[in-house]
Design a protein that fits this description.
Layout lengths: L8 H12 L3 H14 L4 E7 L5 E6 L9 H4 L26 H7 L2 E7 L6 E6 L2 E2 L3 E2 L5 E7 L6 H4 L5 H18 L4 E6 L2 E6 L5 H9 L1 H5 L2 E6 L4 E6 L12 E5 L2 E3 L2 H10 L12 E6 L5 E2 L10 E2 L2 H19 L44 H5 L17 H9 L1 E5 L3 E6 L2 E6 H19 L4 E11 L2 H9 L1 H6 L3 E6 L2 E8 L7 H17 L4 H16 L9 H10 L16 E5 H7 L4
Helix pairs in contact: 1-4, 2-6, 9-10, 13-17, 16-17
Protein backbone atom coordinates (compact mmCIF):
# COMPACT_ATOMS: atom_id res chain seq x y z
CA UNK A 1 0.00 0.00 0.00
CA UNK A 2 1.33 3.43 -0.91
CA UNK A 3 2.40 5.96 1.65
CA UNK A 4 0.47 8.87 0.14
CA UNK A 5 -3.13 9.34 1.20
CA UNK A 6 -5.71 12.09 1.12
CA UNK A 7 -6.22 14.02 4.34
CA UNK A 8 -9.63 13.94 6.04
CA UNK A 9 -11.62 17.14 5.60
CA UNK A 10 -11.43 17.89 9.34
CA UNK A 11 -7.61 17.91 9.12
CA UNK A 12 -7.74 20.06 5.98
CA UNK A 13 -9.96 22.55 7.77
CA UNK A 14 -7.68 22.68 10.80
CA UNK A 15 -4.69 23.37 8.57
CA UNK A 16 -6.69 26.14 6.89
CA UNK A 17 -7.69 27.45 10.31
CA UNK A 18 -4.02 27.71 11.24
CA UNK A 19 -3.47 29.96 8.21
CA UNK A 20 -6.64 32.04 8.49
CA UNK A 21 -7.36 32.16 12.24
CA UNK A 22 -4.43 33.30 14.31
CA UNK A 23 -6.24 35.04 17.16
CA UNK A 24 -9.60 36.75 17.88
CA UNK A 25 -8.54 39.69 15.71
CA UNK A 26 -8.48 37.32 12.72
CA UNK A 27 -12.06 36.29 13.46
CA UNK A 28 -13.17 39.91 13.74
CA UNK A 29 -11.54 40.76 10.42
CA UNK A 30 -13.01 37.81 8.52
CA UNK A 31 -16.53 38.25 9.91
CA UNK A 32 -16.50 41.98 9.20
CA UNK A 33 -15.47 41.34 5.60
CA UNK A 34 -18.31 38.86 5.14
CA UNK A 35 -20.76 41.30 6.71
CA UNK A 36 -19.67 44.15 4.44
CA UNK A 37 -20.07 41.99 1.35
CA UNK A 38 -23.75 41.58 2.30
CA UNK A 39 -24.37 45.30 1.69
CA UNK A 40 -25.37 46.43 5.20
CA UNK A 41 -26.08 49.90 6.53
CA UNK A 42 -24.96 48.96 10.06
CA UNK A 43 -22.64 46.42 11.69
CA UNK A 44 -22.42 45.82 15.46
CA UNK A 45 -19.50 43.94 17.00
CA UNK A 46 -19.42 42.57 20.56
CA UNK A 47 -16.41 40.95 22.26
CA UNK A 48 -15.94 39.24 25.61
CA UNK A 49 -12.50 38.67 27.16
CA UNK A 50 -10.76 40.21 24.18
CA UNK A 51 -12.73 37.98 21.80
CA UNK A 52 -11.46 34.72 23.30
CA UNK A 53 -14.80 33.97 24.98
CA UNK A 54 -17.07 35.57 22.38
CA UNK A 55 -17.03 37.42 19.07
CA UNK A 56 -20.45 38.47 17.84
CA UNK A 57 -20.95 40.33 14.53
CA UNK A 58 -24.46 41.50 13.58
CA UNK A 59 -25.29 43.09 10.21
CA UNK A 60 -28.51 44.20 8.53
CA UNK A 61 -27.41 43.13 5.06
CA UNK A 62 -28.93 40.75 2.53
CA UNK A 63 -28.76 37.63 4.71
CA UNK A 64 -28.28 33.94 3.82
CA UNK A 65 -30.98 31.60 2.57
CA UNK A 66 -31.82 28.78 4.99
CA UNK A 67 -30.83 26.17 2.39
CA UNK A 68 -27.40 27.81 2.01
CA UNK A 69 -26.48 27.77 5.72
CA UNK A 70 -24.83 24.30 5.64
CA UNK A 71 -22.78 25.36 2.59
CA UNK A 72 -21.74 28.60 4.31
CA UNK A 73 -19.70 26.60 6.85
CA UNK A 74 -18.23 24.25 4.23
CA UNK A 75 -14.66 24.79 3.02
CA UNK A 76 -14.19 26.61 -0.28
CA UNK A 77 -17.89 27.39 -0.66
CA UNK A 78 -18.63 30.96 -1.75
CA UNK A 79 -21.17 33.07 -3.61
CA UNK A 80 -18.53 35.51 -4.83
CA UNK A 81 -16.59 33.50 -7.43
CA UNK A 82 -17.85 31.35 -10.29
CA UNK A 83 -14.92 30.79 -12.65
CA UNK A 84 -11.14 31.10 -12.40
CA UNK A 85 -11.19 34.33 -14.39
CA UNK A 86 -13.07 35.99 -11.51
CA UNK A 87 -9.80 35.95 -9.56
CA UNK A 88 -8.50 38.64 -11.95
CA UNK A 89 -11.25 41.09 -11.03
CA UNK A 90 -12.09 40.55 -7.37
CA UNK A 91 -14.56 43.17 -6.15
CA UNK A 92 -15.46 41.74 -2.74
CA UNK A 93 -13.59 41.52 0.55
CA UNK A 94 -14.24 37.84 1.32
CA UNK A 95 -14.01 35.44 -1.58
CA UNK A 96 -11.93 32.38 -0.66
CA UNK A 97 -14.72 30.52 1.14
CA UNK A 98 -12.43 29.47 4.00
CA UNK A 99 -13.26 31.84 6.83
CA UNK A 100 -16.45 30.37 8.36
CA UNK A 101 -15.34 26.77 7.85
CA UNK A 102 -11.94 27.44 9.44
CA UNK A 103 -13.41 29.35 12.38
CA UNK A 104 -16.08 26.68 12.97
CA UNK A 105 -13.38 24.00 13.07
CA UNK A 106 -11.71 25.55 16.14
CA UNK A 107 -14.69 26.96 18.07
CA UNK A 108 -18.44 26.79 18.46
CA UNK A 109 -20.19 28.92 15.85
CA UNK A 110 -23.84 29.95 15.80
CA UNK A 111 -25.22 31.63 12.65
CA UNK A 112 -28.66 33.23 12.46
CA UNK A 113 -29.77 34.75 9.19
CA UNK A 114 -32.76 35.92 7.20
CA UNK A 115 -33.14 37.37 3.72
CA UNK A 116 -35.71 40.13 3.04
CA UNK A 117 -37.95 37.71 1.16
CA UNK A 118 -37.30 34.60 3.25
CA UNK A 119 -37.74 33.26 6.76
CA UNK A 120 -35.11 33.20 9.48
CA UNK A 121 -32.98 30.13 10.21
CA UNK A 122 -30.10 29.15 12.46
CA UNK A 123 -27.26 26.61 12.40
CA UNK A 124 -24.74 25.64 15.06
CA UNK A 125 -21.32 24.17 14.29
CA UNK A 126 -19.21 22.83 17.15
CA UNK A 127 -15.64 21.85 16.31
CA UNK A 128 -16.51 21.39 12.64
CA UNK A 129 -19.64 19.29 13.33
CA UNK A 130 -22.81 21.08 12.10
CA UNK A 131 -26.26 20.56 13.62
CA UNK A 132 -29.55 20.64 11.79
CA UNK A 133 -30.79 23.94 10.35
CA UNK A 134 -33.66 25.20 12.50
CA UNK A 135 -36.21 27.99 12.01
CA UNK A 136 -35.42 31.22 13.83
CA UNK A 137 -37.47 34.39 14.15
CA UNK A 138 -34.48 36.69 13.61
CA UNK A 139 -34.36 40.07 11.89
CA UNK A 140 -33.23 40.58 8.30
CA UNK A 141 -29.48 40.25 8.09
CA UNK A 142 -26.96 37.89 9.68
CA UNK A 143 -25.63 37.30 13.18
CA UNK A 144 -22.50 35.22 13.65
CA UNK A 145 -21.40 34.22 17.15
CA UNK A 146 -18.02 32.58 17.79
CA UNK A 147 -17.76 31.05 21.26
CA UNK A 148 -14.57 29.89 23.01
CA UNK A 149 -12.04 30.27 20.21
CA UNK A 150 -9.61 27.31 20.14
CA UNK A 151 -11.62 25.71 22.94
CA UNK A 152 -11.24 22.33 21.22
CA UNK A 153 -7.56 22.92 20.36
CA UNK A 154 -5.81 23.44 23.72
CA UNK A 155 -2.36 23.67 22.12
CA UNK A 156 -3.46 26.64 20.00
CA UNK A 157 -5.36 28.30 22.83
CA UNK A 158 -2.23 28.20 24.98
CA UNK A 159 -0.53 30.51 22.50
CA UNK A 160 -3.15 33.24 22.92
CA UNK A 161 -1.99 36.22 24.95
CA UNK A 162 -3.72 37.90 27.87
CA UNK A 163 -7.28 39.09 27.15
CA UNK A 164 -6.18 42.73 27.18
CA UNK A 165 -3.54 42.04 24.52
CA UNK A 166 -6.02 40.14 22.36
CA UNK A 167 -8.47 43.01 22.81
CA UNK A 168 -5.86 45.47 21.53
CA UNK A 169 -5.40 43.44 18.34
CA UNK A 170 -9.13 42.84 17.86
CA UNK A 171 -10.04 46.50 18.34
CA UNK A 172 -7.33 47.46 15.86
CA UNK A 173 -8.86 45.10 13.30
CA UNK A 174 -12.23 46.77 13.89
CA UNK A 175 -10.71 50.25 13.52
CA UNK A 176 -9.03 49.42 10.22
CA UNK A 177 -12.26 48.06 8.75
CA UNK A 178 -14.42 50.91 10.04
CA UNK A 179 -11.94 53.42 8.62
CA UNK A 180 -12.21 51.86 5.18
CA UNK A 181 -16.04 52.05 5.08
CA UNK A 182 -17.31 55.36 6.48
CA UNK A 183 -20.68 54.98 4.68
CA UNK A 184 -21.55 52.07 7.04
CA UNK A 185 -22.44 52.63 10.70
CA UNK A 186 -20.38 50.58 13.16
CA UNK A 187 -20.36 49.88 16.87
CA UNK A 188 -17.96 47.97 19.09
CA UNK A 189 -18.55 46.70 22.60
CA UNK A 190 -16.21 44.91 24.99
CA UNK A 191 -17.11 43.16 28.24
CA UNK A 192 -20.45 44.93 28.39
CA UNK A 193 -19.10 48.43 27.65
CA UNK A 194 -19.67 50.42 24.45
CA UNK A 195 -16.28 51.48 23.08
CA UNK A 196 -17.17 52.83 19.61
CA UNK A 197 -20.45 54.03 18.17
CA UNK A 198 -19.82 55.40 14.69
CA UNK A 199 -22.65 56.83 12.58
CA UNK A 200 -22.56 56.45 8.82
CA UNK A 201 -20.96 59.44 7.10
CA UNK A 202 -19.89 60.65 3.68
CA UNK A 203 -16.84 62.38 5.17
CA UNK A 204 -13.71 60.36 5.76
CA UNK A 205 -12.44 63.10 8.09
CA UNK A 206 -15.55 62.63 10.25
CA UNK A 207 -14.89 58.88 10.49
CA UNK A 208 -11.28 59.58 11.49
CA UNK A 209 -12.57 62.00 14.13
CA UNK A 210 -14.93 59.34 15.48
CA UNK A 211 -12.08 56.87 15.90
CA UNK A 212 -9.13 59.08 16.85
CA UNK A 213 -10.68 62.29 18.15
CA UNK A 214 -11.79 65.59 16.65
CA UNK A 215 -8.51 67.31 17.53
CA UNK A 216 -6.44 64.85 15.52
CA UNK A 217 -8.82 64.97 12.56
CA UNK A 218 -9.03 68.77 12.47
CA UNK A 219 -5.27 69.16 12.03
CA UNK A 220 -4.91 66.70 9.15
CA UNK A 221 -3.85 67.93 5.72
CA UNK A 222 -5.84 66.63 2.74
CA UNK A 223 -3.77 65.17 -0.10
CA UNK A 224 -4.62 63.72 -3.49
CA UNK A 225 -2.87 62.90 -6.74
CA UNK A 226 -3.41 60.77 -9.84
CA UNK A 227 -1.51 59.80 -12.95
CA UNK A 228 -4.33 58.47 -15.08
CA UNK A 229 -5.63 55.07 -13.96
CA UNK A 230 -4.04 55.22 -10.53
CA UNK A 231 -4.97 57.77 -7.86
CA UNK A 232 -4.45 58.33 -4.16
CA UNK A 233 -6.37 60.52 -1.75
CA UNK A 234 -6.52 60.91 1.98
CA UNK A 235 -5.09 62.85 4.90
CA UNK A 236 -1.64 63.20 6.46
CA UNK A 237 -0.46 64.79 9.67
CA UNK A 238 1.55 67.94 10.06
CA UNK A 239 5.23 67.24 10.79
CA UNK A 240 4.93 68.75 14.26
CA UNK A 241 2.13 66.27 15.06
CA UNK A 242 4.37 63.23 14.73
CA UNK A 243 3.78 60.22 16.98
CA UNK A 244 5.86 57.53 18.62
CA UNK A 245 4.52 54.56 16.62
CA UNK A 246 2.91 53.71 13.28
CA UNK A 247 -0.49 53.25 14.91
CA UNK A 248 -1.89 56.19 12.93
CA UNK A 249 -0.68 54.99 9.53
CA UNK A 250 -3.44 53.31 7.51
CA UNK A 251 -3.47 52.28 3.84
CA UNK A 252 -6.49 51.08 1.85
CA UNK A 253 -7.18 49.78 -1.62
CA UNK A 254 -10.66 48.87 -2.82
CA UNK A 255 -12.03 49.19 0.73
CA UNK A 256 -9.40 46.74 1.97
CA UNK A 257 -6.84 47.73 4.63
CA UNK A 258 -3.33 46.57 3.81
CA UNK A 259 0.31 47.05 4.80
CA UNK A 260 3.04 47.78 2.31
CA UNK A 261 6.62 48.61 3.26
CA UNK A 262 7.33 50.39 0.00
CA UNK A 263 4.42 52.82 0.33
CA UNK A 264 5.13 53.44 4.01
CA UNK A 265 8.74 54.15 3.02
CA UNK A 266 7.45 56.72 0.51
CA UNK A 267 5.46 58.38 3.30
CA UNK A 268 8.52 58.43 5.54
CA UNK A 269 10.66 59.76 2.71
CA UNK A 270 8.24 62.65 2.15
CA UNK A 271 8.89 63.73 5.75
CA UNK A 272 12.65 63.43 5.49
CA UNK A 273 14.28 66.27 7.41
CA UNK A 274 11.00 67.14 9.09
CA UNK A 275 10.91 64.43 11.77
CA UNK A 276 13.33 63.19 14.37
CA UNK A 277 14.67 59.68 13.93
CA UNK A 278 12.22 57.16 15.35
CA UNK A 279 9.19 59.45 15.08
CA UNK A 280 6.33 58.51 12.76
CA UNK A 281 4.01 60.69 10.65
CA UNK A 282 0.23 60.33 10.60
CA UNK A 283 -1.18 59.06 7.31
CA UNK A 284 -4.57 57.85 6.07
CA UNK A 285 -4.30 57.02 2.36
CA UNK A 286 -6.72 55.27 -0.01
CA UNK A 287 -5.72 54.07 -3.47
CA UNK A 288 -7.97 53.70 -6.48
CA UNK A 289 -6.74 51.53 -9.33
CA UNK A 290 -8.15 48.91 -11.73
CA UNK A 291 -8.85 45.50 -10.09
CA UNK A 292 -6.44 43.77 -12.47
CA UNK A 293 -3.61 46.04 -11.27
CA UNK A 294 -3.65 44.60 -7.74
CA UNK A 295 -3.57 40.98 -6.55
CA UNK A 296 -5.33 40.47 -3.22
CA UNK A 297 -5.04 36.68 -3.39
CA UNK A 298 -1.45 36.31 -2.21
CA UNK A 299 -2.10 35.35 1.42
CA UNK A 300 -4.71 33.04 2.98
CA UNK A 301 -5.64 35.67 5.55
CA UNK A 302 -5.63 38.42 2.87
CA UNK A 303 -3.23 40.50 4.97
CA UNK A 304 -1.05 41.39 1.99
CA UNK A 305 -1.63 42.64 -1.53
CA UNK A 306 0.66 42.77 -4.54
CA UNK A 307 0.70 45.62 -7.03
CA UNK A 308 1.57 45.23 -10.68
CA UNK A 309 3.51 48.52 -10.66
CA UNK A 310 4.58 49.22 -7.07
CA UNK A 311 7.08 51.89 -8.11
CA UNK A 312 4.24 53.86 -9.68
CA UNK A 313 2.41 54.04 -6.36
CA UNK A 314 5.65 54.94 -4.57
CA UNK A 315 6.26 57.93 -6.86
CA UNK A 316 2.63 59.02 -6.63
CA UNK A 317 2.62 59.07 -2.81
CA UNK A 318 5.98 60.81 -2.62
CA UNK A 319 4.94 63.50 -5.09
CA UNK A 320 1.53 64.06 -3.47
CA UNK A 321 2.94 64.59 0.02
CA UNK A 322 5.97 66.67 -0.93
CA UNK A 323 4.02 69.02 -3.19
CA UNK A 324 1.38 69.51 -0.49
CA UNK A 325 3.95 70.39 2.16
CA UNK A 326 5.70 72.87 -0.13
CA UNK A 327 2.47 74.44 -1.40
CA UNK A 328 0.88 74.75 2.04
CA UNK A 329 4.06 76.13 3.64
CA UNK A 330 3.52 73.78 6.57
CA UNK A 331 5.34 74.73 9.76
CA UNK A 332 8.05 72.16 10.39
CA UNK A 333 10.84 71.47 12.80
CA UNK A 334 13.33 72.73 10.23
CA UNK A 335 12.52 76.28 11.29
CA UNK A 336 10.84 75.98 14.68
CA UNK A 337 9.60 79.07 16.51
CA UNK A 338 12.16 80.39 18.94
CA UNK A 339 10.93 81.41 22.37
CA UNK A 340 12.49 84.46 23.93
CA UNK A 341 13.69 82.37 26.89
CA UNK A 342 13.53 78.62 27.15
CA UNK A 343 15.00 77.24 30.36
CA UNK A 344 15.57 73.57 30.97
CA UNK A 345 13.57 72.12 33.90
CA UNK A 346 15.45 71.27 37.03
CA UNK A 347 16.71 67.74 37.45
CA UNK A 348 15.51 65.66 40.37
CA UNK A 349 18.06 63.73 42.43
CA UNK A 350 18.80 60.14 41.54
CA UNK A 351 21.27 57.50 42.60
CA UNK A 352 24.71 58.65 41.38
CA UNK A 353 27.30 56.29 39.92
CA UNK A 354 30.43 55.32 41.80
CA UNK A 355 32.68 58.26 42.54
CA UNK A 356 29.87 60.82 42.71
CA UNK A 357 28.74 61.79 46.20
CA UNK A 358 25.27 63.10 47.09
CA UNK A 359 25.06 66.85 47.64
CA UNK A 360 24.27 68.31 51.05
CA UNK A 361 20.78 69.62 51.65
CA UNK A 362 21.71 73.21 50.74
CA UNK A 363 23.16 72.40 47.31
CA UNK A 364 23.23 74.69 44.31
CA UNK A 365 20.38 74.99 41.84
CA UNK A 366 21.41 73.68 38.42
CA UNK A 367 19.24 76.01 36.40
CA UNK A 368 19.39 79.66 37.57
CA UNK A 369 17.00 82.27 36.09
CA UNK A 370 14.01 81.55 38.38
CA UNK A 371 11.88 84.07 36.46
CA UNK A 372 12.00 82.05 33.23
CA UNK A 373 8.81 80.44 31.86
CA UNK A 374 9.92 76.91 32.67
CA UNK A 375 10.99 77.87 36.17
CA UNK A 376 7.67 79.60 36.82
CA UNK A 377 5.83 76.49 35.60
CA UNK A 378 7.52 74.39 38.28
CA UNK A 379 6.30 76.47 41.19
CA UNK A 380 3.96 74.94 43.68
CA UNK A 381 1.06 76.32 45.70
CA UNK A 382 1.82 79.73 47.11
CA UNK A 383 4.50 80.40 44.48
CA UNK A 384 7.27 78.46 46.23
CA UNK A 385 9.68 77.19 43.62
CA UNK A 386 10.52 73.49 43.49
CA UNK A 387 14.30 73.56 43.92
CA UNK A 388 15.25 70.09 45.13
CA UNK A 389 18.94 69.41 45.73
CA UNK A 390 20.91 67.97 42.83
CA UNK A 391 23.91 65.67 42.93
CA UNK A 392 27.21 67.51 43.04
CA UNK A 393 30.17 66.44 40.96
CA UNK A 394 33.26 65.47 42.91
CA UNK A 395 36.17 67.93 42.93
CA UNK A 396 38.04 66.30 40.04
CA UNK A 397 34.95 66.06 37.86
CA UNK A 398 33.92 69.65 38.69
CA UNK A 399 37.38 70.95 37.85
CA UNK A 400 37.29 69.14 34.52
CA UNK A 401 33.78 70.39 33.79
CA UNK A 402 34.67 74.00 34.63
CA UNK A 403 37.54 73.87 32.15
CA UNK A 404 35.24 72.81 29.31
CA UNK A 405 34.21 75.51 26.86
CA UNK A 406 30.64 74.82 25.66
CA UNK A 407 28.77 76.80 23.02
CA UNK A 408 25.27 76.29 21.60
CA UNK A 409 25.13 76.13 17.80
CA UNK A 410 22.02 76.64 15.64
CA UNK A 411 19.83 76.32 18.77
CA UNK A 412 20.15 72.59 18.33
CA UNK A 413 23.68 71.39 19.10
CA UNK A 414 26.19 72.11 21.85
CA UNK A 415 29.87 72.09 20.90
CA UNK A 416 32.23 71.32 23.79
CA UNK A 417 35.98 71.75 23.80
CA UNK A 418 37.68 68.76 25.42
CA UNK A 419 41.30 68.02 26.22
CA UNK A 420 41.52 65.69 23.22
CA UNK A 421 39.35 67.52 20.67
CA UNK A 422 35.71 68.58 20.46
CA UNK A 423 32.39 66.93 21.31
CA UNK A 424 29.14 67.81 19.52
CA UNK A 425 26.03 67.17 21.63
CA UNK A 426 22.43 66.87 20.45
CA UNK A 427 20.72 68.94 23.14
CA UNK A 428 17.34 67.20 22.83
CA UNK A 429 18.76 63.67 22.83
CA UNK A 430 21.00 64.30 25.83
CA UNK A 431 18.35 66.04 27.91
CA UNK A 432 15.83 63.33 27.03
CA UNK A 433 18.24 60.68 28.33
CA UNK A 434 18.96 62.59 31.53
CA UNK A 435 15.27 63.17 32.21
CA UNK A 436 14.46 59.52 31.54
CA UNK A 437 17.08 58.42 34.09
CA UNK A 438 15.68 60.92 36.62
CA UNK A 439 12.10 59.73 36.07
CA UNK A 440 13.12 56.09 36.27
CA UNK A 441 15.10 56.46 39.48
CA UNK A 442 12.37 58.53 41.12
CA UNK A 443 9.66 56.00 40.23
CA UNK A 444 11.75 53.05 41.44
CA UNK A 445 12.44 54.72 44.80
CA UNK A 446 8.93 56.15 45.19
CA UNK A 447 10.33 59.69 45.25
CA UNK A 448 8.73 61.11 42.11
CA UNK A 449 7.60 64.66 42.84
CA UNK A 450 4.12 65.30 41.47
CA UNK A 451 2.88 68.76 40.59
CA UNK A 452 -0.87 69.26 41.11
CA UNK A 453 -2.29 71.51 38.41
CA UNK A 454 -4.01 74.60 39.79
CA UNK A 455 -6.16 74.63 36.65
CA UNK A 456 -6.69 71.04 35.40
CA UNK A 457 -6.25 70.61 31.65
CA UNK A 458 -9.23 69.30 29.70
CA UNK A 459 -8.56 66.85 26.91
CA UNK A 460 -10.85 65.12 24.42
CA UNK A 461 -9.82 61.53 23.77
CA UNK A 462 -10.76 58.98 21.17
CA UNK A 463 -12.77 55.97 22.44
CA UNK A 464 -9.74 53.69 22.26
CA UNK A 465 -7.70 56.22 24.23
CA UNK A 466 -10.39 56.38 26.91
CA UNK A 467 -10.15 52.62 27.14
CA UNK A 468 -6.38 52.88 27.64
CA UNK A 469 -6.75 55.49 30.37
CA UNK A 470 -9.17 53.29 32.28
CA UNK A 471 -7.09 50.15 31.81
CA UNK A 472 -3.76 51.71 32.78
CA UNK A 473 -4.84 54.35 35.31
CA UNK A 474 -2.56 52.86 38.00
CA UNK A 475 0.45 52.87 35.67
CA UNK A 476 -0.17 56.48 34.66
CA UNK A 477 -0.60 57.58 38.27
CA UNK A 478 2.60 55.81 39.23
CA UNK A 479 4.34 58.05 36.70
CA UNK A 480 2.73 61.17 38.15
CA UNK A 481 -0.15 61.51 35.66
CA UNK A 482 -3.59 61.64 37.28
CA UNK A 483 -6.38 61.59 34.68
CA UNK A 484 -10.05 61.75 35.68
CA UNK A 485 -13.24 61.39 33.61
CA UNK A 486 -15.10 64.63 32.92
CA UNK A 487 -18.05 63.35 30.92
CA UNK A 488 -18.38 61.88 27.46
CA UNK A 489 -15.05 61.70 25.63
CA UNK A 490 -13.49 64.42 27.82
CA UNK A 491 -11.03 63.86 30.66
CA UNK A 492 -9.17 66.26 32.92
CA UNK A 493 -5.51 65.99 33.85
CA UNK A 494 -5.10 67.07 37.46
CA UNK A 495 -1.39 66.37 38.00
CA UNK A 496 1.87 65.71 36.19
CA UNK A 497 5.48 65.09 37.23
CA UNK A 498 7.24 68.24 38.43
CA UNK A 499 10.17 67.32 36.17
CA UNK A 500 7.93 67.94 33.16
CA UNK A 501 8.23 71.67 33.78
CA UNK A 502 5.94 73.78 31.59
CA UNK A 503 5.25 71.04 29.06
CA UNK A 504 1.45 70.99 28.58
CA UNK A 505 -0.12 67.99 30.23
CA UNK A 506 -2.23 67.35 27.12
CA UNK A 507 0.91 66.86 25.02
CA UNK A 508 2.32 64.43 27.55
CA UNK A 509 -0.91 62.43 27.69
CA UNK A 510 -1.09 62.10 23.89
CA UNK A 511 2.50 60.89 23.68
CA UNK A 512 2.14 58.48 26.59
CA UNK A 513 -1.11 56.96 25.32
CA UNK A 514 0.38 56.40 21.88
CA UNK A 515 3.26 54.49 23.43
CA UNK A 516 0.95 52.56 25.75
CA UNK A 517 -1.20 51.46 22.82
CA UNK A 518 1.79 50.11 20.91
CA UNK A 519 3.26 48.36 23.96
CA UNK A 520 -0.07 46.86 25.07
CA UNK A 521 -0.59 45.43 21.57
CA UNK A 522 2.80 43.73 21.74
CA UNK A 523 1.90 42.07 25.04
CA UNK A 524 4.32 44.06 27.18
CA UNK A 525 4.13 43.52 30.93
CA UNK A 526 3.64 46.14 33.64
CA UNK A 527 7.33 47.07 33.85
CA UNK A 528 7.48 47.59 30.10
CA UNK A 529 4.35 49.73 30.19
CA UNK A 530 5.80 51.90 32.96
CA UNK A 531 9.02 52.23 30.98
CA UNK A 532 7.11 53.39 27.89
CA UNK A 533 5.29 55.98 29.99
CA UNK A 534 8.63 57.28 31.25
CA UNK A 535 9.97 57.38 27.68
CA UNK A 536 6.97 59.47 26.67
CA UNK A 537 7.38 61.82 29.61
CA UNK A 538 11.07 62.35 28.89
CA UNK A 539 10.51 62.87 25.17
CA UNK A 540 7.88 65.59 25.67
CA UNK A 541 9.54 67.32 28.64
CA UNK A 542 13.03 67.53 27.14
CA UNK A 543 14.30 70.68 25.48
CA UNK A 544 13.81 70.59 21.72
CA UNK A 545 15.89 71.39 18.68
CA UNK A 546 15.23 75.10 18.21
CA UNK A 547 15.12 75.96 21.93
CA UNK A 548 17.62 78.74 22.66
CA UNK A 549 19.55 78.18 25.89
CA UNK A 550 21.41 80.67 28.02
CA UNK A 551 25.08 80.02 28.66
CA UNK A 552 24.29 78.97 32.23
CA UNK A 553 21.83 76.38 30.92
CA UNK A 554 24.32 75.09 28.36
CA UNK A 555 27.00 74.70 31.05
CA UNK A 556 24.58 72.96 33.42
CA UNK A 557 23.44 70.48 30.75
CA UNK A 558 27.04 69.66 29.85
CA UNK A 559 27.96 69.14 33.51
CA UNK A 560 24.94 66.94 34.18
CA UNK A 561 25.90 64.41 31.51
CA UNK A 562 28.81 63.36 33.70
CA UNK A 563 26.40 61.98 36.30
CA UNK A 564 24.76 59.42 34.03
CA UNK A 565 26.93 56.53 32.88
CA UNK A 566 24.59 55.65 30.00
CA UNK A 567 24.32 59.19 28.62
CA UNK A 568 25.77 58.30 25.21
CA UNK A 569 22.37 57.32 23.78
CA UNK A 570 18.85 58.65 24.20
CA UNK A 571 16.07 56.21 25.24
CA UNK A 572 15.31 55.59 21.54
CA UNK A 573 18.91 54.52 20.86
CA UNK A 574 20.01 57.67 19.03
CA UNK A 575 23.50 58.89 19.94
CA UNK A 576 23.54 61.97 22.15
CA UNK A 577 26.94 63.15 20.97
CA UNK A 578 29.80 62.57 18.58
CA UNK A 579 33.49 63.21 19.18
CA UNK A 580 36.18 64.57 16.89
CA UNK A 581 39.72 64.22 18.18
CA UNK A 582 42.47 66.72 17.46
CA UNK A 583 43.98 64.10 15.20
CA UNK A 584 40.71 63.94 13.23
CA UNK A 585 40.67 67.71 12.89
CA UNK A 586 44.34 67.89 11.94
CA UNK A 587 43.79 65.22 9.31
CA UNK A 588 40.83 67.11 7.83
CA UNK A 589 42.89 70.30 7.62
CA UNK A 590 45.89 68.34 6.27
CA UNK A 591 48.12 69.18 9.19
CA UNK A 592 49.36 65.60 9.34
Amino acid sequence: MGRIHQLPMSVVNRIAAGEVVERPASVVKELLENALDAGPTRIDVTLDQGGVALVRVVDDGGGIEADDLPLAVTAHATSKLRVAEDLERIGTLGFRGEALASIAEVSRVVIRSRTPAGTGATITVDGGRPDEVRPDGCAVGTTVEVHQLFGNVPARRAFLRAPQTEWSHASEAFVRTALAHPAVAFSLGHNGRRVHDLPATTSWRDRIAGLFGAEVASRLIEVEADDGEVSVHGFVGRPEDDVASGRLQHLFVGGRPFRDRSILHAVQEAYRGLLLTGRQPIAFLAFDLPPEAVDVNVHPAKMEVRFREPSRLYRLVLAALRSKFLAANVTTRLEPPRPAVAVVPEFEPFAPPRGVAPAPAASRTLWPEPESPRARASTGPGGAAHAPPAWELDDAARAAADEELAVQMHDRYIVVETSSGIEVIDQHALHERLLYEKFKAAVETGGLEVQPLLVPERLELAPAELELVGEHAATLERAGMRIEPFGGATVIVTSKPALAGDTPAAEIVREVLDRLAATAASGGGTSMLVDEVLHGLACKAAIKAGDHLSQAEVDALVRERRIVEESHHCPHGRPTSLTLSRQDLDRQFRRT
